[in-house]
Amino acid sequence: MLPQSAGQTVRHHKVAEQDLTFPQELTQAEAAIENKDYATAEPLLKKVTANDPHNYQAWFDLGFVYNGLGNPDESIAAYRKSVAAKPDAFESNLNLGLMLAKISQPDAEQFLRAATTLKPATNQEEGRARAWLSLGHVLESNKTEQALDAYKQASSLLPKDPGPHLSAGALLQKDSRFADAEQEYKQVLVLDPNSSDALTGLANIYMHGNRFADAGEILGKLAALQPNDAHTHMQLGRVLAAAGKNDEAIAELQTAAKLAPADSDVQRDLADLYVASGKFDLAEGQYRTLLTSHPADPELHHGLGVVLLKQRKFPEAQQEFLATVKLKPDMGGAYGDLAAAAMENKDYALAIRATDVRAKFLPEVAPSFFSSRLRL
């Protein structure tokens, strides 16, 4: 694995400790930097650069200090002076490129490319791989093939690091090159079987391609790795439902609902799945729970009405359908359901009115013709 994330600047090797000709202030400043005492290091480094404007090490350290103090503009200016003083310093070019990338400056590419050709002071393969990986991230927005080549270069330097494959997979997935992205994610899992990012990427690819069996297998692994992640259980529940495994899907959605009781999407999915499974009593309870927090949602009133109709609770169903069309007067299907409930309640006048309104929104069906004949 790379020692640091691609977007994090690196520390320079401490030249001041190796070269006794370096100013004492530089040695003191680097000791302060090691302790993250940037406030102490800053004036010491300013003194060194004032006395020797071409001291690339002092400018580099000052760039690092300014970044640590949250001053990106000053950090970039210092790194530029470090590169100007010594253009072949790997660390200066890398950090300047990274800082420019943070603020989306186009010349970030120039310095990161330079870093890929230079020799790091230590950990050379890791350093160059990091430069290639960082360059790939910069190129992603408009140079896809070059970004993929950069990730390939990083992987060749560190073949056991899953990071470049993960970045390539995400880019290929974004570019809708799903077969290639799948192979990159699979390579990540060879190197790191518990990579949640790779598992998530594969699950999304499989769901996009309606490969529900494959998606279910991957989401099952992800749920085992992240047992307290409600979203993973919800997605697994949806995939299992699409595959017709309703009981397993219900169990996953119930778990998701316990983990995220305020997530209305989980609650709605669970209610719909109860209906699809013929568990109308459970669906009724779920819809009623949802309506306590969403009382003006016509879809929920309609869903509850349908469940009540299935349970032959006709008066209650009629009230829910009336609430539905009051909230959403153009919901044509709700008028048909209202007519059915009204007929069961022997409220024929309401059934006829509901059927007539339904005909304005939906094609005529047998119940509409029947109600028309009733009026003759």
Structure explained in plain terms:
The chain contains 22 helices and no strands. The chain has 376 residues and is mainly alpha-helical. The chain has a domain at 1-122: Alpha Horseshoe (Serine Threonine Protein Phosphatase 5, Tetratricopeptide repeat). Helix 10 runs antiparallel to helix 11, helix 18 (298-310) runs antiparallel to helix 19 (314-327) and helix 20 runs antiparallel to helix 21 (348-361). The longest helix has 16 residues, at 124-139. The protein is elongated and about 100 Å long. It has helices at residues 15-18, 24-34, 38-51, 56-68, 72-85, 90-102, 108-116, 124-139, 144-157, 163-174, 178-191, 196-208, 212-225, 230-242, 246-259, 264-276, 280-293, 298-310, 314-327, 332-344, 348-361, 366-375.
Task: Give the structure's gist in a few sentences.
With 376 residues, the chain is mainly alpha-helical.
Share of residues in strands = under 5%
Named at the architecture level, the CATH assignment of the domain at 1-122 is: Alpha Horseshoe
Gyration radius over CA: 32 Å
Low-pLDDT ranges: 1-5, 366-376
- Ends: how far apart? 81 Å
CATH topology of the domain at 1-122: Serine Threonine Protein Phosphatase 5, Tetratricopeptide repeat
Mean pLDDT: 90
* Level-1 CATH class name of the domain at 1-122: Mainly Alpha
**Helix and strand pattern:** HHHHHHHHHHHHHHHHHHHHHH
- The level of helicity is over 70%
Can you count the beta strands?
Answer: 0
CATH superfamily of the domain at 1-122: Tetratricopeptide repeat domain
